Amino acid sequence: MKKQGISYKKTILPTDYLDNYRFQIEIVHESVLRKGMAGLQSRFLEKIDIISKLFPQIFVMNQREYFEEFARAYGDDPTKYTQKMDQMVAQANEEQKTAQRGQGGANNGSG
Question: pLDDT, tens digit, for every residue of 86-98?
Answer without folding.
Answer: 899 899 999 998 8
